[in-house]
């Protein structure tokens, strides 16, 4: 070792943020193992690297005893005092045993330790950077694909996008840019592993936060999201400012804001509804674009019976029940939809007195 080596460690400390003392201590520990392995010894040894000159010395550490039974681990009082007259029984005496060619072994070991520590530090920095981005959106470039995953280059790390987390409309090839939602960040022995999704409801929420300044600023809140990725989503919004229309803010002038999100999601239909603490109103809004005549709430069962015009029944239920299913996910209430005629037949409710409930929502295809 040399002064140049110590200076190199100082440079690593400045550039990588790894303390020089930590590196030296790690090298010393590694050199102990190298010494025992290369010189076939079971001695208890200490390796010392001079912090200024870089000079390395190996010391055998032996217990001072009256009678020596194991010369590898013990030293007599007389022999110890020949080294240092202050040694007494049970002290640990240190005798320099630095091998002549230990410098070559030390250089190789130091290089391996430093390289490993730099790699670990870089992995730690990447992990810390991305653990803060968990449940956020990232942009990346598709690198490759196997039978289960797409591998996406995020710059300093490669992330995993399982094929099961792709929307049915997603078709990516090598070199394509992809916007995804970070679902999980793990610190593994191979370094940080980042998992992505294109189907998670959080992706829709983050896209609205990026496109709608009122949401980013906290004036408009996203209260709930229900999503069947690639097909249809519903998002419930609420304004903290009575003068700000939450639905209009999300739609944007001429629908530009929401259309940007629809394009990113490859044509996924999005219903934007006004959240309400009034369950009847909220459920009616959630069934957009269907018109609702009446909502009857059963608190104990957490169920809402909804009555719609006859001609709106199929629209309220949706293809394969999708509209009703998403409305139930969005509100957290079970929803039983009846047509006006069904309600009259089953519950004896007259048609005429029913008036259409006020609904505040918009559906974007």
Automatic annotation (TrEMBL):
Annotated GO biological process: DNA-templated transcription termination; transcription antitermination
Record domain S1 motif: where: 135-199
Keyword Electron transport tagged: no
Localization terms from the record: Cytoplasm
Region (Disordered): 344-365
Gene3D superfamilies attached to this UniProt entry: 3.30.300.20, Nucleic acid-binding proteins, NusA, N-terminal domain
Biased composition (Polar residues): 353-365
Transcription keyword on record: yes
Pfam families to which the protein is assigned, alphabetical: KH_NusA_1st (PF13184), KH_NusA_2nd (PF26594), NusA_N (PF08529), S1 (PF00575)
Function of the protein: Participates in both transcription termination and antitermination.
PANTHER family: TRANSCRIPTION TERMINATION FACTOR NUSA, TRANSCRIPTION TERMINATION_ANTITERMINATION PROTEIN NUSA
Protein family membership: Belongs to the NusA family.
Protein name per UniProt: Transcription termination/antitermination protein NusA
Gene this protein is translated from: nusA
């Amino acid at each position: 070792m040399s002064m140049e080596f110590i200076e190199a460690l100082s440079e690593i400390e400045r550039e990588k943020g790894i303390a020089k003392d930590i590196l030296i201590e790690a090298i010393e520990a590694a050199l102990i193992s190298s010494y025992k392995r290369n010189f076939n010894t079971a001695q208890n040894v200490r390796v010392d690297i001079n912090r200024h000159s870089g000079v390395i010395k190996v010391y055998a550490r032996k217990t001072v005893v009256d009678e020596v039974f194991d010369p590898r681990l013990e030293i007599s009082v007389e022999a110890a005092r020949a080294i240092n007259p202050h040694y007494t029984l049970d002290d640990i005496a240190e005798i320099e045993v630095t091998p002549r060619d230990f410098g070559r072994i030390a250089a190789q070991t130091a290089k391996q330790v430093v390289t490993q520590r730099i790699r670990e530090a870089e992995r730690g920095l990447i992990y810390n950077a991305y653990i803060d981005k968990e449940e956020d959106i990232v942009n990346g470039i598709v690198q490759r694909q196997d039978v289960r995953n797409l591998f996406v280059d995020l710059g300093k790390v490669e992330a995993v996008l399982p094929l099961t987390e792709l929307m049915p409309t997603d078709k990516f090839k090598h070199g394509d840019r992809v916007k995804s939602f970070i679902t999980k960040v793990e610190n593994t022995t191979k370094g940080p592993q980042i998992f992505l999704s294109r189907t998670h409801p959080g992706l829709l929420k983050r896209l609205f936060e990026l496109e709608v300044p009122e949401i980013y600023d906290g004036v408009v809140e996203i209260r709930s999201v229900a999503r069947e990725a690639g097909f249809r989503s519903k998002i419930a919004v609420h304004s903290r400012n009575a003068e700000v229309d939450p639905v209009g803010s999300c739609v944007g002038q001429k629908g530009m804001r929401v259309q940007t999100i629809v394009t990113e999601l490859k044509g996924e239909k999005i219903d934007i509804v006004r959240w309400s603490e009034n369950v009847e109103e909220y459920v009616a809004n959630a069934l957009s674009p269907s018109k609702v005549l009446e909502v009857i709430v059963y608190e104990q069962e957490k169920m809402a019976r909804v009555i719609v015009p006859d001609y709106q029944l199929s629209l309220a239920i949706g293809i394969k029940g999708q509209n009703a299913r998403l409305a139930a996910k969005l509100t957290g209430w079970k929803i039983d939809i009846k047509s006006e005629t069904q309600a009259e037949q089953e519950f004896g409710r007259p048609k005429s007195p029913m008036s259409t409930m006020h609904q505040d929502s918009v559906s974007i295809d």
